[in-house]
Structures are given as C-alpha cells and as structure tokens.
Amino acid sequence: MVDQARARRLAKRISSIVATAIEYEIKDPRLRFVTVTDAKVTGDLREATVYYTVMGETLDIEPDYAAAAAGLEKAKGVLRSKVGAGTGVKFTPTLAFVLDKVPDVAREMEELLARARASDDEVAKAAANATHAGEADPYKVARDDDES
What we know:
Helix content is 49%, strand content 15%. The chain is built from three helices and three strands; from the N terminus they run H-E-E-H-E-H. It has helices at 4-25, 65-87, 102-128, and strands at 34-41, 47-54, 94-99. It has a three-stranded mixed sheet. The longest helix has 27 residues, at 102-128. The N and C termini lie far apart (84 Å). The relative contact order is 0.14.
C-alpha cells in the first residue's frame, strides 16, 4: 500500500538534506549557485527525483548548467549517503537530479503577459477615439405616419 503522505514527508526531508549538504558540506565549486527547489519520491520510496535550478554569478552571466549537472552527478554518492543517514528509512532511495525549468518558464510567462498588457493598452487607446462605422442604430427604419 502506497502512503502518499509518507512519500511527501520523505521528499521534503530529502530536499532539505540535499540542499544543506550542497551548501555546507560539498566543496565542489560547480555547485556554488545550485538551489534545490523540490523533490519527489516514488510510492515505494526507492527512487527520489531532486529538482534544482542554477543561478549565474551575476544577472548578466548565463548559468553553467552542464557544470552543475556534472558536479551533482559526481556528488550523487555522498549525497545519497547523507540522505540515508538523515532519514533513517530501511532502503535509501536512489537520487536523480533534474534541472527545474520553472523559473525560466515563469519569466517567459511574465514577458508574455507584459506584451499582452501592452497590446491591450494599444487597443484601449484606439477604442477610446473610435466611432461607429455607420449610423448608431443601422436597423432603425424611418417611419412615415401616412402609411399607418
């Protein structure tokens, strides 16, 4: 029987352990700008997927995703040992690291929303001074009082 609540608690604990280990214990310079964003554990608690994002040294410098992935792959055994010691589960889950694209997607969505707002403003400005193409009521029929 799969206990989803237990899997969520374990995933949260794994993400905390991995993030702390990357920040304070792993001395690989490739992992300086790696941030753990989330973790997911399978129902049988045997496999864990850790999601991470990489920031650049400054806002102008593109992050080195390949170096971060290589650093995480190299540190995978040490991190798994730390997870095993920190969780106390019978079987220590294997770790898989996946680059989290959520921050990039969120930035792209914000840019799309800004463009849509600008387009809406242009349409609103054009509509403010617009007039109808014909009469105000094109279906109004002129009545002659004589025909009644």
